[in-house]
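Re: the 151-residue chain
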Amino acid sequence: MKNVLFLCTGNSCRSILAEALLNHLGENDYKAYSAGSFPTGEVNPDSIGMLQSKNLITTGFKSKSWDDLAHINFDIVITVCDNAANETCPVYLGHAIKAHWGIPDPDKVQGNRREAAFAMAFDQLEQRINALLELSGVTVENLNYIGDTSL
């Protein structure tokens, strides 16, 4: 069982979606967690709504600091913030395979395109997590390749 940390700044949207997805899809091989370098303190209700719409578990999530998970030895750490939008991604200094999967922040979208933005973030994360689950061996190179391609 590999421990995976999905890391972002606020830990309210993308990292929560990724945690839920990997725990659902990779439950026999992976245990996923999520955290933020500056957590918002609450999970975005639209993230919970997206998980509900996909019939995934919605309980037990909270926006937390990576300090809250310092007792866990992570095998893989994946940042999901969006460098293209000039977001500052946290830098994890622990020993782990580290990769970056830039996903646009759906919380930045307002109005009638908001639901579509959350759906797009979910779909991108689901595609990348499915690609992760198909790997025969996890390396920095193949994790970053998954993050660099639009699958």
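The chain has four helices and four strands.
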